[in-house]
Amino acid sequence: MKKIIVTGKGGVGKTTVIAALAKLLVNDGHRVLIIDTDPSMNLAMTLGVPYSMLTTLADNKQSVRETLGVDGHEGDEAAGHTHKVDDSGIASIISTYTVLTGDKIRVMVMGTIPYGGAGCICSSIALVKLIIQKIEDHIPYLDYVIVDSQAGSEVLGRGLAADYDYNLVVTEATPKAMDVARHMMKLAKDINVKRQFIIVNKVESAKDVSAIVKHLSLDISDIFPVSYDHMVIEADKQGRMLNNFCPDSPVLRDIRLIKDAIEG
Predict the structure, then answer these.
(1) CA angle 217-223-229, nearest 5°?
(2) CATH class of segment(s) 2-263
């Protein structure tokens, strides 16, 4: 099973990239689970799953912890205080907390902060980390787990993606987005992510890619430009996946190259 995290500044297009990539992987016969750790929770809707169909981990932390065999106080899962869990335990989590979309993509949502003053999402991130570990140990039929990171560094700071196969850093050719991309790459390197791809989104000219290469001092082979296409916005307005709404979009052509690199 390959583990992928997708990071970057808010608004750079992570959701579009993840949804399109997952659909292309499924079309190739792979079994894909997406876990949305962004408290804004937009990814499921992009995949065609209304919020009313979701049961989030954050809203049911105690039940999830008990099913996984976690003892002690909330947050102990980060330290590994767990009892042995057989296949049925993690299978129950997948059955209860994931939805299989019409495009055969399985999606799980971490959830958000329930009310003002409720604190950080640290314990929920720790729970996602444990679930992925249990999936890797007990669920042999998944090919890819793709984690949609929140906009920011907390997920990487909590070590969620330690030893992952890929960090896909989505950015635009703007100073703010590139600064966030540089920080994401540094944090991913610190926790031993094996390989990092820079996805330059909404590219309108070759100057955009050149700016990234110069700003981040990268090898060009690690950079994947994704063209700007107004049909992405139209698909979003209609609540449809780009792959189904406009299968000839240049965005999908570009993301297919990312898919090929990951498969290879």
Answers:
(1) 125
(2) alpha beta
